[in-house]
Amino acid sequence: MHEKLLDETGWRILEELQEDARLSYKELGRRVNLSTPAVIERVRRMEEAGVLEGYRGVVNPQKVGYSFRVILAVATVYNNPDHVILRTLEEIPEVIRSWSVTGSNDFFMEVLVPSMEFLEDLLVKLSAHGRITTSIVLPRMGGSGRIPRPRNRLEEAEAVQSTLETGTTKG
């Protein structure tokens, strides 16, 4: 369905918008070699298809009062925990992301923490739902946060072979 949108030009548009979502259509068109009306139409179609889900400002949590970030792993005591945990999470705006996962835990949560006291209170509240494992997030070591183009099978095989031969990753 999205193949037409995700041709070479479509991926270049996505890469540019992930780098700077505030680009004007004129500048975006210049960078991807499309006219302004053509780039407006491509972006509109990507939005309608759900390929582009939105545009956000990136806020530095420490600059707005959060001391640190934690990842909580939750192994619940419930057979079907999603709805129970969801109600609890809706009451905690500091939980900025959560995922239902497979494995020994049922959920992972990313939480912005203003103080150690806040974290202690949160852990007490969540411990009623099961076992909680807490990891404090250290400074980011890598990764851009951008969605890359999927590799085709040949590129994937070449990257694996390169890694095996040199011990470093490619692309």
Give the arrangement of secondary structure elements:
Blueprint (H helix, E strand, L loop, with lengths): L7 H12 L5 H8 L3 H13 L19 E9 L5 H9 L4 E6 L6 E7 L2 H12 L2 E7 L16 H14 L5
Antiparallel strand pairs: 1-3, 1-4, 2-3
Helix pairs in contact: 1-2, 2-3
GO molecular function: sequence-specific DNA binding
InterPro entries: ArsR-like_HTH, AsnC-type_HTH_dom, Dimeric_a/b-barrel, Tscrpt_reg_AsnC-like, Tscrpt_reg_AsnC/Lrp_C, Tscrpt_reg_HTH_AsnC-type_CS, WH-like_DNA-bd_sf, WH_DNA-bd_sf
GO cellular component, one term: cytosol
Kindly identify the CATH topology of the domain at 61-136.
Alpha-Beta Plaits
Question: Quick one: overall form?
Answer: extended
Radius of gyration: 21 Å
**How far is the first residue's CA from the last residue's CA?**
26 Å
Provide a count of the helices: 6
CATH H level, superfamily name of the domain at 61-136: Lrp/AsnC effector binding domain/regulation of amino acid metabolism (RAM) domain
Poorly predicted ranges: none
Helix percentage? 25-40%
Write the CATH architecture name of the domain at 61-136: 2-Layer Sandwich
Keywords: DNA-binding, Transcription, Transcription regulation
Organism: Aminomonas paucivorans DSM 12260
GO molecular function: sequence-specific DNA binding
Region (Disordered): 143-171
Key descriptive features of the protein:
single chain, 171 residues, alpha+beta, Arc Repressor Mutant, subunit A, Alpha-Beta Plaits, 40% helix, extended
Task: Walk me through what this model shows.
40% of the residues lie in helices and 17% in strands. It is an alpha+beta fold. Among the domains are: 8-48, Arc Repressor Mutant, subunit A; 61-136, Lrp/AsnC effector binding domain/regulation of amino acid metabolism (RAM) domain (Alpha-Beta Plaits). Helix 1 crosses helix 2 (25-32). The two termini are 26 Å apart. The mean pLDDT is 87.
